[in-house]
Design a protein that fits this description.
The chain is mainly alpha-helical and 64 residues long. The protein has 2 helices and no strands.
Length: 64
């Protein structure tokens, strides 16, 4: 009944997912270098990227 395979994600979705993962790594690195004085915009960007990555992972089945 629910054995329908998930369709292959479009190539653009995979590229966008990979781009977001790379950006999150840069943001995390920037946060680590700043120590306790983390700008609010970096915290917000990190949370948005995490949410978007999780959404793509659930929607398209990405598992890296």
């Amino acid at each position: 009944m629910f054995n329908d395979p998930t369709p292959e994600p479009p190539k653009e979705m995979r590229e966008e997912y990979d781009r977001m993962k790379r950006r999150l790594a840069l943001v995390k690195d920037g946060i680590m270098k700043r120590g306790k004085n983390i700008p609010y915009d970096l915290k917000v960007e990190e949370e948005i990227l995490r949410a978007n990555i999780a959404h793509y992972a659930i929607l398209w089945g990405f598992t890296d």
